[in-house]
Design goal:
homotrimer, 326 residues, Rieske Iron-sulfur Protein, Naphthalene 1,2-dioxygenase Alpha Subunit, Chain A, domain 1, 7-stranded antiparallel beta sheet, 5 helices, 18 strands, 32% strand
Chain lengths: 326, 326, 326
């Protein structure tokens, strides 16, 4: 989120994001309450958004502060829904539920993966034609690399085929770990490798890859990357690769664009309008982490619905958007 | 409507128009009753339309007058619905309700805007991706020009920002008037300007722009243009600019194509499948004329439904097509 | 069906076809039961299909024979629906109903149109944007040629306009015959011509065209071509032209692509989601053969539904796919 207005559909709803003059991000429903023009077709005027059709002007809290035409009358109902935002770990976090329930402390602690809460954070964006959960599933079982990335990523981890995905939990966080020990990666030396993908509800997965000479302790030499997934519609998602290391945000971009995204879209197409479970998927041992994430998400969605903290459109989409991410 | 067959979807139904040899326009449902081929894929043979698939031939009243294949048997049911037409003010008017209720006198009197009922009338066509009522709303509050046409049309009427839209009625006709007095348009002289948009049910809006030195009487120096809007589907329209003055039909075409049409389409997209009122629009003072037009349309539709004069598909679309226009 | 995997949607369902090492064709549902990836995105490994996502491998009967990742556990439920196939007359025939009801003897006897059951058979493929029954109707009344193919095929059969379509039956087979006697085709000689289109349930039509000097007996000089039509969705079809004579499979391809297919698609578009009969088509004498085919198809579908031999998706589409064709 740099200059200008960023329109983005989140969990089915059109949202716009922009920065106020002091840099604070703001987010609101991207539809003028007057004639239903997308406010993102308007412009930023100071801290405000002015509609491009008849000029109604809204502050960051969604209140109409000016009707520049005629005698300037502003009806009491002239306001647009705004969303609380929080900028942390180089990301803008949007709360789409009730304002009073917005809890910045619910933002997952990504401090282990970024130098600090104000770190500069490079991201690469990809639009994914699949439900956000398919994109998370994909990360929670990286053994798919053996076949889906046979020519691209797989050669780096020759031990992946025989490895087993182990699952561990840390509160709401769920981690899939793949250990590959005493591996010959082709240069005659034996190495130990470890791949971790850790899920932070609802849509962040931190990927860590570590490699040391066989027998040494795996440690801080790990490569970190964040995968940040936001539902767009029931069958599409926004996907951000993030890294604080220059250039790394794009590192896995090509295999993802060429191999993962088309596969996810093809699976989604074959699923049609069906729910994942209603199709009775065959569950394999390596699905354990992905299934635990799905179960945890379902539990959180149920809890949010019970506490009536979700807006109607969110319930409709059956997505958890407690902490939608930009 | 010049040579050949013009296919045009009107209020959801495929219709074809053509001219008979004596120039009289004819209109009929654009689907052969035999194998459902679009008759507009066929050709004109004298005063008739011949289907391009098996050659069934229909007269201007929709009766099948020839089956050119085999022994030429024509079933009694072989006919297609024709629509009464009337050519007036350089336009072809189609009546889509019951034939006996067709009333040429219901055609609005546009004589003030065209030299005569047989005047040559130049039109420019634009396809609009929005409900016809959004296109009418747009004309009934021209103050939108200040923002939507900030770089194109607005500089000509610098007094528009502070002006107020006044509404007046003349029977079914509803007129929005914007007076801008004692205006400096940049050349040092003071002028009085007046913009009128007058709606004729269901879909014609006559635009008049007059300008005189400040204090003089506004009069016949007015520039006239007609905007003729026909529903195509529930969310798209046919839009004709018309003028009897050569070249003027295209005068406002560019700002409309570049600025109005994309905005109308964006509003329509944000409205989705929702009805205008169900979205609880915020009503501003300058909406008065547009709202009166909507109320008048709703009343006329109710009356037509009460008198059962509308075909089923028209009711379905909830559009008034008493006097659909070509 | 040569090398590689051929994905093809049949009667609404994604199906893949491939050849085993000994040449036997195999067909299965094109969706992995694990993560719902299209198996056609995978590859052939010997006689098996391996999924391109996580490597699950299936034999020609749809059983999972390998999970190459981790410890290789294969759940009992890991199988995919396979379809019995039969290769005959140069075509692969797929049975989509219950396995035990697959009856190779139900494959229509096309021996009169191909040199033998193992003949090499050239086909040209066209995707048709219309229900398969519209494509069959089109063949069962070739008098449409007079208008639809006025510039292309019609000049060869100048007697077609006045000819009458006669219908004859041979068991389930229905034949439309058009005799054109004592015809001047432009070179001064008089000829007798005969056009036959014979329908074999559910979707094969054999076209025969014979021509002799007037008065001679029409005989073996006939030109044969097969039109093989498979439903893809409710409103689209796969269309194969077939011939054992080199080059002939493409002979009528151009008029079909340029004239028939667009007309069929236009009729389908005008029919919308309506059923053929619900639109109350006007029936002409030359429709007799097409109507008999439709009645026979309806009877066969009813019988299959009564005997519960159809899978749910087939019932849904209301198509007969007892003998879907590739």
């Amino acid at each position: 989120l740099v200059d200008g207005i960023l329109p983005r559909r989140i969990a089915g709803e059109p949202v716009l994001l922009y920065r106020q003059k002091n840099g604070t991000p703001a987010a609101m429903f991207d539809r003028c309450p007057h004639r239903f023009a997308p406010l993102s077709r308007g412009c930023i005027v100071g801290d405000y958004i002015r509609c491009g059709y008849h000029g109604l002007t809204f502050d960051a809290k969604g209140g109409c502060i000016a009707n520049p035409l005629g005698e300037g009358y502003i009806p009491e109902t002239a306001s647009v829904r705004a969303f609380p935002t929080e900028e942390k770990f180089g990301l803008v976090w949007i709360w789409r539920g009730d304002h009073e329930k917005a809890e910045p402390k619910n933002i997952p602690d990504l401090s282990a993966f970024v130098p600090g809460p104000t770190a500069e954070f490079k991201t690469a964006y990809i639009h994914v034609r699949a439900d956000y959960r398919l994109a998370i599933d994909n990360l929670m079982d990286l053994s798919h690399s053996v076949f889906l990335h046979a020519e691209t990523l797989a050669p780096v981890t020759p031990g992946l085929r025989d490895a087993v995905v182990r699952v561990s939990r840390n509160g709401e966080r769920i981690k899939a770990t793949i250990e590959m020990k005493n591996i010959d990666i082709g240069d005659g030396e034996r190495r130990d490798q470890q791949l971790d993908t850790e899920w932070f509800a609802p849509g962040v997965v931190a990927l860590t890859f570590a490699q040391v000479p066989h027998g040494e302790l795996l440690g801080n030499e790990a490569i970190h990357a964040l995968h940040i997934i936001t539902p767009e519609t029931e069958r599409s998602s926004h996907y951000l690769f993030g890294s604080t290391v220059d250039g790394r945000e794009g590192m896995t971009r090509d295999p993802f664009v060429d191999e993962d995204e088309p596969m996810l879209a093809a699976c989604q197409e074959r699923m049609g309008e069906e729910d994942f479970w209603s199709l009775r998927p065959v569950i394999l041992p390596n699905d354990a982490a992905a299934i635990q994430v799905r179960r945890q998400l379902e539990k959180m969605i149920r809890n949010e619905q019970a506490s009536q903290s979700l807006v109607a459109s969110a319930r409709l989409l059956n997505v958890i958007n407690q902490r939608s991410i930009e």
